[in-house]
Amino acid sequence: MADVTGTTGTLVLAGTPIGDVADAPPRLAKELETADVVAAEDTRRLRRLTQALGIHTTGRVVSYFEGNESARTPELVEALSGGARVLLVTDAGMPSVSDPGYRLVAAAVEKDIKVTAVPGPSAVLTALALSGLPVDRFCFEGFLPRKAGERLGRLREVADERRTMVFFEAPHRLDDTLAAMAEVFGGDRRAAVCRELTKTYEEVKRGPLAELAVWAAEGVRGEITVVVEGAADTAEELDAAELVRRVQVREEAGERRKEAIAAVAAAAGLPKREVFDAVVAAKNASRTGPAEGKGLS
Predict the structure, then answer these.
(1) Less Cβ crowding at N or C end of the chain, within 10 Å?
(2) CA-closest candidate to residue 279, choices 292, 297, 260, 294
(3) By C-alpha distance, which of 252, 66, 75 is closest to 149?
(4) Is 90 left (phi over 0), alpha (psi -120 to 50) or beta?
């Protein structure tokens, strides 16, 4: 697509409904109708969306998904460099947030091409708001690794995270993920499983991780977002057993004991000596056993 003025085009990231099509932002219909190129994660779902909105695309429609993202990005950048207005939409929510888009945005920015957005529904923010957990500080962790060992490793990395955490998960892996979270974070850690947000069968299940893991074992369907309470951030809430557990989690993730103790102490706002003493006491107790330990002062 040539542009005789030499002016580059614009990349538009457009949010699409996460469930209820009535949530589509008003600008979305206009952008879909007028874009020179519409890059869609699933062209069939795009067709259903335009039909629901009662509109037609006039530009070229191309697929842009995980399997062809690397190969198609240069083609779209070339169109943008030639002056095209390229609209990027994914199946639901905001492009680039656990969906295709990052590579294209990075490539456009590198070429000094304008990038803008049509704000839309977000499963992350919707679930966070509905969870009933603290929202003043939060972080988004996306999808956890599929393999059990890698999943545990990732969870151990954020075991001491104080902010509320938001995760995406596939329904068939939800029970294993919640069980792993209960193992690493503790079964009493509060969480909320948000299912089918804004859809007919929307459900928000709140409770301790251990209870949610049992509930999910019965089988859960639909789009899933999990919100988990952050780690306790006051020293008063951390007893010796919890300090030892946190050190063990870090050691199992590959940290040396010295560094693990220092990190746990810093996160808890405690002197390193206090955490060290708790670890040593636990180690001695495991060696002596309850019977021998009775005679120690």
Answers:
(1) C
(2) 260
(3) 252
(4) beta
Instruction: Note the pLDDT tens digit of each residue in 134-193.
Output: 999 999 999 999 999 999 999 999 998 999 999 999 999 999 999 999 999 999 999 999
Residue of 216, 196, 197 lying closest to 207 (CA atoms): 216
The H-assigned helical ranges of the chain are: 26-34, 43-53, 69-81, 102-110, 123-131, 148-157, 174-185, 209-216, 240-252, 257-268, 272-293
Query: Distance between CA atoms of 90 and 216, rounded to whole angstroms?
Result: 28
Query: What pLDDT is stored for residue 187 in this prediction?
Result: 94
Q: Which of 128, 120, 130, 77 is nearest to 99 (CA)?
A: 120
Q: What does the block give as tokens for 128?
A: 């966070």
Cβ(39)–Cβ(101) below 8 Å = no
- Please, are residues 189 and 216 in contact by the beta-carbon 8 Å criterion? no
Q: Which amino acid is at 287?
A: R
Cα 139 from Cα 148, distance rounded (Å): 22
The predicted structure's pLDDT at residue 287: 77
